[in-house]
Amino acid sequence: MSTPHTRVRPATPEDLSALSDIHARARASYYAGHIPAEEYSGPAELERQREATARAIASDEHTVLCAVRDDHVVGFAVLAARHDEDKLFHFHIDPSVWRTGAGTALHHACVDVWRTAGLTRARLEVFAPNARARAFYADQGWQEDGRVDDHVRMVLRVPTDIRSPQRVGE
Protein backbone atom coordinates (compact mmCIF):
# COMPACT_ATOMS: atom_id res chain seq x y z
CA MET A 1 0.00 0.00 0.00
CA SER A 2 1.41 3.41 -0.92
CA THR A 3 1.43 6.49 1.28
CA PRO A 4 -0.88 9.25 0.03
CA HIS A 5 0.81 12.37 -1.33
CA THR A 6 1.05 15.30 1.08
CA ARG A 7 0.61 18.76 -0.33
CA VAL A 8 1.29 21.91 1.64
CA ARG A 9 -0.71 25.10 1.28
CA PRO A 10 -1.36 28.29 3.24
CA ALA A 11 -3.92 27.93 6.03
CA THR A 12 -7.25 29.71 5.81
CA PRO A 13 -9.74 30.64 8.53
CA GLU A 14 -11.81 27.62 7.44
CA ASP A 15 -8.94 25.36 8.60
CA LEU A 16 -9.06 26.60 12.19
CA SER A 17 -11.09 23.71 13.65
CA ALA A 18 -8.87 21.10 12.01
CA LEU A 19 -5.72 22.89 13.18
CA SER A 20 -7.04 23.17 16.72
CA ASP A 21 -7.92 19.46 16.80
CA ILE A 22 -4.48 18.44 15.51
CA HIS A 23 -2.80 20.77 17.98
CA ALA A 24 -4.73 19.25 20.90
CA ARG A 25 -3.98 15.63 19.88
CA ALA A 26 -0.32 16.30 19.20
CA ARG A 27 0.24 18.15 22.48
CA ALA A 28 -1.52 15.42 24.43
CA SER A 29 0.88 12.87 22.92
CA TYR A 30 3.98 14.51 24.34
CA TYR A 31 2.79 16.40 27.42
CA ALA A 32 0.81 13.52 28.99
CA GLY A 33 2.60 12.29 32.08
CA HIS A 34 4.87 15.35 32.19
CA ILE A 35 2.58 18.24 33.03
CA PRO A 36 -0.99 18.42 34.39
CA ALA A 37 -3.59 17.80 31.69
CA GLU A 38 -5.35 21.07 32.45
CA GLU A 39 -2.22 22.94 31.29
CA TYR A 40 -2.32 21.47 27.77
CA SER A 41 -5.90 20.26 27.27
CA GLY A 42 -8.10 22.17 29.67
CA PRO A 43 -10.91 24.26 28.14
CA ALA A 44 -9.16 27.57 28.82
CA GLU A 45 -5.91 26.37 27.25
CA LEU A 46 -7.65 24.91 24.20
CA GLU A 47 -9.48 28.20 23.65
CA ARG A 48 -6.25 30.19 24.12
CA GLN A 49 -4.51 28.02 21.51
CA ARG A 50 -7.45 28.33 19.09
CA GLU A 51 -7.46 32.12 19.40
CA ALA A 52 -3.68 32.30 18.95
CA THR A 53 -3.88 30.16 15.81
CA ALA A 54 -6.70 32.32 14.42
CA ARG A 55 -4.60 35.45 15.03
CA ALA A 56 -1.61 33.83 13.30
CA ILE A 57 -3.70 32.92 10.24
CA ALA A 58 -4.96 36.51 10.01
CA SER A 59 -1.54 38.05 10.68
CA ASP A 60 0.92 39.48 8.18
CA GLU A 61 3.67 38.69 10.70
CA HIS A 62 3.33 34.91 10.50
CA THR A 63 3.00 32.22 7.89
CA VAL A 64 0.66 29.35 8.67
CA LEU A 65 1.00 26.28 6.46
CA CYS A 66 -1.22 23.19 6.31
CA ALA A 67 -0.14 19.70 5.33
CA VAL A 68 -3.05 18.11 3.45
CA ARG A 69 -3.76 14.54 2.36
CA ASP A 70 -6.87 13.51 0.48
CA ASP A 71 -8.42 16.92 1.24
CA HIS A 72 -7.89 16.45 5.01
CA VAL A 73 -5.54 18.65 7.02
CA VAL A 74 -3.02 16.37 8.75
CA GLY A 75 -0.56 18.92 10.10
CA PHE A 76 0.35 22.56 10.35
CA ALA A 77 3.19 24.95 11.06
CA VAL A 78 3.19 28.53 12.30
CA LEU A 79 6.40 30.36 11.51
CA ALA A 80 7.93 33.77 11.14
CA ALA A 81 10.13 34.60 8.19
CA ARG A 82 11.51 38.09 8.58
CA HIS A 83 15.09 39.23 8.95
CA ASP A 84 14.47 39.95 12.64
CA GLU A 85 12.43 36.84 13.44
CA ASP A 86 13.11 33.38 12.11
CA LYS A 87 11.31 31.24 14.63
CA LEU A 88 9.19 28.15 14.14
CA PHE A 89 6.38 28.66 16.66
CA HIS A 90 4.31 25.53 16.08
CA PHE A 91 4.86 22.37 14.09
CA HIS A 92 2.25 19.70 14.68
CA ILE A 93 1.38 16.57 12.75
CA ASP A 94 -1.67 14.47 13.55
CA PRO A 95 -0.33 11.47 15.48
CA SER A 96 -2.32 9.17 13.17
CA VAL A 97 0.04 10.04 10.28
CA TRP A 98 3.38 10.17 12.08
CA ARG A 99 6.25 8.56 10.15
CA THR A 100 4.42 8.72 6.82
CA GLY A 101 6.24 11.70 5.28
CA ALA A 102 3.70 14.39 6.16
CA GLY A 103 6.06 16.04 8.64
CA THR A 104 8.95 15.98 6.20
CA ALA A 105 6.83 17.57 3.46
CA LEU A 106 5.66 20.28 5.86
CA HIS A 107 9.22 20.88 7.08
CA HIS A 108 10.48 21.26 3.50
CA ALA A 109 7.78 23.89 2.91
CA CYS A 110 8.89 25.79 6.03
CA VAL A 111 12.48 25.75 4.79
CA ASP A 112 11.27 27.07 1.42
CA VAL A 113 9.55 29.98 3.20
CA TRP A 114 12.72 30.84 5.11
CA ARG A 115 14.88 30.47 2.00
CA THR A 116 12.55 32.71 -0.04
CA ALA A 117 12.70 35.31 2.76
CA GLY A 118 16.50 35.24 2.52
CA LEU A 119 17.04 33.74 5.96
CA THR A 120 20.11 31.64 6.59
CA ARG A 121 19.19 30.37 10.04
CA ALA A 122 16.01 29.30 11.85
CA ARG A 123 15.28 28.58 15.52
CA LEU A 124 12.77 26.59 17.51
CA GLU A 125 12.14 25.28 20.99
CA VAL A 126 10.92 21.73 21.62
CA PHE A 127 9.65 20.20 24.87
CA ALA A 128 12.73 18.42 26.26
CA PRO A 129 11.04 15.06 27.03
CA ASN A 130 9.65 14.91 23.46
CA ALA A 131 12.39 12.62 22.12
CA ARG A 132 10.39 11.76 19.00
CA ALA A 133 10.18 15.40 17.90
CA ARG A 134 13.81 16.08 18.78
CA ALA A 135 14.87 13.10 16.65
CA PHE A 136 12.68 14.31 13.76
CA TYR A 137 14.24 17.78 13.86
CA ALA A 138 17.75 16.32 14.11
CA ASP A 139 17.01 14.21 11.02
CA GLN A 140 16.01 17.44 9.23
CA GLY A 141 19.36 19.06 10.10
CA TRP A 142 18.50 20.94 13.31
CA GLN A 143 21.06 20.99 16.12
CA GLU A 144 20.50 21.46 19.81
CA ASP A 145 21.68 24.82 21.07
CA GLY A 146 20.94 24.95 24.79
CA ARG A 147 17.91 24.86 27.05
CA VAL A 148 15.15 27.26 27.98
CA ASP A 149 13.35 25.98 31.07
CA ASP A 150 11.86 22.59 30.06
CA HIS A 151 12.51 23.11 26.34
CA VAL A 152 15.51 22.43 24.13
CA ARG A 153 16.48 25.26 21.81
CA MET A 154 17.42 24.06 18.31
CA VAL A 155 18.85 25.86 15.29
CA LEU A 156 18.91 25.09 11.60
CA ARG A 157 21.19 26.56 9.01
CA VAL A 158 18.69 27.02 6.19
CA PRO A 159 20.01 24.87 3.36
CA THR A 160 20.35 26.22 -0.14
CA ASP A 161 19.18 22.81 -1.39
CA ILE A 162 16.21 21.28 0.47
CA ARG A 163 17.61 17.78 -0.03
CA SER A 164 20.88 18.47 1.74
CA PRO A 165 20.42 20.02 5.19
CA GLN A 166 23.48 21.73 6.56
CA ARG A 167 24.48 21.30 10.17
CA VAL A 168 25.10 24.51 12.08
CA GLY A 169 28.82 25.21 11.95
CA GLU A 170 29.39 23.48 8.59
Broad shape: globular
Number of strands: 7
* Tally of separate helices: 5
- Given helix and strand content, the structural type is alpha+beta
Number of domains: 1
For the record, give the distance between the C-alpha atoms at the N and C termini, rounded to a whole number: 39 Å
For the largest beta-sheet, the strand count, sense and barrel status come to:
7 strands, mixed
Order of helices and strands: EHHHEEEHEHEE
User: How are the strands of the biggest sheet laid out side by side?
Assistant: 1-2-3-4-5-7-6
GO molecular function: acyltransferase activity, transferring groups other than amino-acyl groups
Keywords: Acyltransferase, Transferase
Protein name: Protein N-acetyltransferase, RimJ/RimL family
Pfam families: Acetyltransf_1 (PF00583)
